[in-house]
Amino acid sequence: MQAPAQKNSDDPTAALLQTEPAARTIGGEEGMNVDEMLTRFAGEFGPWQLRQFLLTSLAWILCAFQVMAVVFADRESARPVPCPVGIRLGRAWWLARSTVEEWGLTCGEKYKVGLAQSAFFVGSMAGAAFFGHVSDSFLGRKGVLTLTCFLLTVFSLLTAFSPSFFIYSFLRFLSGLSTGGVGLSAFVLATEPVGPSFRAAAAMSTFHFFSIGSISLSFTSLLLPSWRLLYVATSLPSLLFLLLALPFISESPRWHLVHRNLPAAMQIIRAVAKTNGYSIPDRAILVHDADPTRPVRTASIVDVMRSHVTRPRLILGFLINFLISVSYYGLTLNVANLGPEIHASAILNAVAEMPAYALTAVALRWHGRRPMAVTSMWLCGFFCFAAGAFVKAARMGCAAVAIFAVAATYNLMYVCTAELFPTEVRNAALGCVTLAGQMGAVAAPVVVAVGGKWGYGVFGGCAVVAGGLGLRLPETRKQPLYETMAGLEGGEKGKGEAG
């Protein structure tokens, strides 16, 4: 844990803090923003933030269960399946290994397998957009996480009782809708209370839990080969998270501050300081970074598009996330198809991504977000092109390096997006770029199915173009995390005048 320190010429965070509006004296009290309060008095990453980080990041395991369930539930059967009726199971309908077996999704019905997968990602798109806005407005981050975890429990359990393929696809859509809200809320709750020196590393580290979830689901599928029992199993962790983890998760103090609930925000900050072993002097108070006379109004994605500062950021983030998602999901599906054993392939794929998250989390403390993102995108593109040119072992090796690079980029864009937008629209902006990512996820299986070895060229081209667009993104390292649109625009204007 880094000890808070008073601001002085030797403090390495002084440059960061000076980019925010200077601390203001109000009636003998010293007003400051959340980042400055954490750095000087409460601790940037201590026991309180560690507990919040671990508890909220567990939600990514739930997301992994839902995203990866289709890999096992909709897998091709190892035994002949009559089409279009499927294997007649009678009273043993709970024992079907996959939807393909039970509903005869072979021959001319094979396209339906992709339809169910697309339905889930379409739901994720809608959920990211809707719940992103709701969590920035009246319901809050914790409220959305609570609601979506409950819905995820219900829809995942109902999926296990699907009487037909179309009901199954509809319930997968609803599960995707819930998953889109779970991931966004958990990410923001885990990172917003962390100080600026550790925020990027904490953000990248959340994605280890997604890999853990993928590995856990692979072993669960080995124990429960029935696709219906597998969906029952995926509903239980959401229920346990609701009962055992959520009561100990705190709402973001930044969200309370944006909604002018200063007592609640200060109560959380004082709890952070107490748990971390520090105390906040009575003279120190949190202040809003906007004009206090401005009426309280909920900002939305419309405000993001109206602003000359945030509009290009959102458009670039949308395009980059779409392109990177095509590469990420396309490479993931291709690697799974290379292995003869689906469980081993899924486990190895998840394990291969974890070093990328770890190395990126460490490197972010010393290197900028933009050069790291651009470099990893172009590295992915180069090895995708190489994979298309080689065969067998050489192709597998190049594809593995490409996945390593694109995994780092895919999750680094979450960090960049969170830092590019202020608190009052952060989840809405994350929801918008996540929607773009889900669009890429829907497109990737089509490229895999029809592209063959030329698919690597498509994935490489997407990564290279995304890297070029990434050069246009502003650098966010050592920049303040603003609370409002007005604060961000004022800060950017100040930098322009200083320049």
Automatic annotation (TrEMBL):
<keyword id="KW-0813">Transport</keyword>
<keyword id="KW-0812">Transmembrane</keyword>
<protein>
    <recommendedName>
        <fullName>H(+)/Pi cotransporter</fullName>
    </recommendedName>
</protein>
<feature type="region of interest" description="Disordered">
    <location>
        <begin position="1"/>
        <end position="22"/>
    </location>
</feature>
<dbReference type="GO" id="GO:0015293">
    <property type="term" value="F:symporter activity"/>
</dbReference>
<feature type="transmembrane region" description="Helical">
    <location>
        <begin position="53"/>
        <end position="72"/>
    </location>
</feature>
<keyword id="KW-0472">Membrane</keyword>
<feature type="transmembrane region" description="Helical">
    <location>
        <begin position="167"/>
        <end position="189"/>
    </location>
</feature>
<keyword id="KW-0592">Phosphate transport</keyword>
<feature type="domain" description="Major facilitator superfamily (MFS) profile">
    <location>
        <begin position="52"/>
        <end position="478"/>
    </location>
</feature>
<feature type="transmembrane region" description="Helical">
    <location>
        <begin position="343"/>
        <end position="364"/>
    </location>
</feature>
<comment type="similarity">
    <text>Belongs to the major facilitator superfamily. Phosphate:H(+) symporter (TC 2.A.1.9) family.</text>
</comment>
<feature type="transmembrane region" description="Helical">
    <location>
        <begin position="143"/>
        <end position="161"/>
    </location>
</feature>
<dbReference type="Pfam" id="PF00083">
    <property type="entry name" value="Sugar_tr"/>
</dbReference>
<dbReference type="GO" id="GO:0016020">
    <property type="term" value="C:membrane"/>
</dbReference>
<dbReference type="GO" id="GO:0006817">
    <property type="term" value="P:phosphate ion transport"/>
</dbReference>
<dbReference type="InterPro" id="IPR020846">
    <property type="entry name" value="MFS_dom"/>
</dbReference>
<feature type="transmembrane region" description="Helical">
    <location>
        <begin position="454"/>
        <end position="473"/>
    </location>
</feature>
<dbReference type="InterPro" id="IPR036259">
    <property type="entry name" value="MFS_trans_sf"/>
</dbReference>
<dbReference type="InterPro" id="IPR005829">
    <property type="entry name" value="Sugar_transporter_CS"/>
</dbReference>
<keyword id="KW-1133">Transmembrane helix</keyword>
<feature type="transmembrane region" description="Helical">
    <location>
        <begin position="428"/>
        <end position="448"/>
    </location>
</feature>
<feature type="transmembrane region" description="Helical">
    <location>
        <begin position="113"/>
        <end position="131"/>
    </location>
</feature>
<feature type="transmembrane region" description="Helical">
    <location>
        <begin position="400"/>
        <end position="421"/>
    </location>
</feature>
<dbReference type="InterPro" id="IPR005828">
    <property type="entry name" value="MFS_sugar_transport-like"/>
</dbReference>
<feature type="transmembrane region" description="Helical">
    <location>
        <begin position="229"/>
        <end position="250"/>
    </location>
</feature>
<keyword id="KW-0769">Symport</keyword>
<feature type="transmembrane region" description="Helical">
    <location>
        <begin position="314"/>
        <end position="331"/>
    </location>
</feature>
<feature type="transmembrane region" description="Helical">
    <location>
        <begin position="376"/>
        <end position="394"/>
    </location>
</feature>
